[in-house]
Design brief:
With 269 residues, this protein is an all-alpha fold. The chain contains 13 helices and no strands.
Length: 269
């Protein structure tokens, strides 16, 4: 199991209370389909941006109280209305997807965090709104978990993203550890690369640990869902460290045996 942000969205899980499975499925379809517009197939950037702009227009119709033009957004409008979800969170996701079409490098960590604020954090906040857990501390903790998951996915997929001409490792960090994009292109592991990845692992792990107390504020089954998600992310970081950041030849992922480990660790959170 890779740590991919939307694949960690709790879609129709048996751990999610039945009344909320449909809203979560609808939100997931919105996020997944918009991400596909930005990232899948061979469409030109202009076509991708036009597709995302059409999604933005549908959100504007929802915000204005008019009927959307497509079935997905008709369903989404009902979910937003029934659960009083902030429409801006959906706009933030679309902004991030549009940015992915045109922006391939990040100057520093602050710039990358701003991207995660829009690409990852809205998902967690929407789930918290569905469950009525929106205290400021809970939202911050959710942001930490979601950003950590996004970063972990980036560190897993350095080689995969390179094939799309994307480098999410901040340019300042590459320079600091004396690693160049030529090393990524050549899939070249080195002691410098290992040190760079250790640094990124520490960052993501600290964020995940900061967000982990959120599980104690969540109702039973959702709390267990998020426990498993947090432990899955931390387990991937362990695997990354074990292979010294060599994602070129040993991209870490979780298998069936890991679920026993995750379940055991979840019991002690």
């Amino acid at each position: 199991m890779p740590v991919d942000h939307y694949e960690n969205f709790p879609v129709a899980s048996f751990l999610v209370p039945a009344p909320l499975r449909r809203p979560i499925e609808v939100i997931y379809r919105f996020a997944r389909s918009a991400d596909d517009i930005a990232d899948e197939g061979d469409a030109a950037p202009e076509e991708r941006l036009a597709g995302l702009a059409a999604y933005q227009a549908e959100l504007d119709r929802i915000a204005a109280g008019t009927t959307p033009l497509t079935p997905l957004f008709v369903a989404l409008a009902e979910v937003i209305r029934r659960h009083a979800l902030p429409v801006q969170l959906f706009h933030d996701l679309l902004d991030a997807f549009a940015q992915d079409v045109v922006k391939k490098r990040y100057a520093d960590y602050a710039e990358l965090l701003d991207y995660c604020r829009r690409s990852a954090n809205p998902v967690g906040r929407l789930v918290l709104h569905l469950f009525g857990r929106t205290a400021p501390e809970q939202l911050v903790q959710s942001d930490c978990i979601c950003t950590a998951l996004q970063l972990i996915n980036f560190w897993q997929d350095v080689a995969v993203d390179w094939q799309k001409d994307r480098v999410y490792i901040p340019q300042t960090d590459l320079r600091r550890f004396r690693v160049g994009e030529a090393d990524i292109a050549a899939a070249r592991w080195s002691a410098n690369w290992a040190a760079l990845m250790d640094f990124q692992i520490d960052r993501a792990g600290a964020l995940m640990e900061r967000g982990a107390p959120l599980v104690h504020a969540l109702p039973g089954r959702l709390g267990w869902e998020i426990r498993l998600t947090v432990q899955g992310g931390l387990r991937i970081l362990e695997r990354l460290r074990r292979v010294r950041g060599d994602v070129f030849t040993r991209r870490p992922k979780l298998g069936k045996r890991d679920w026993l480990v995750l379940a055991g660790r979840s019991l002690t959170m």
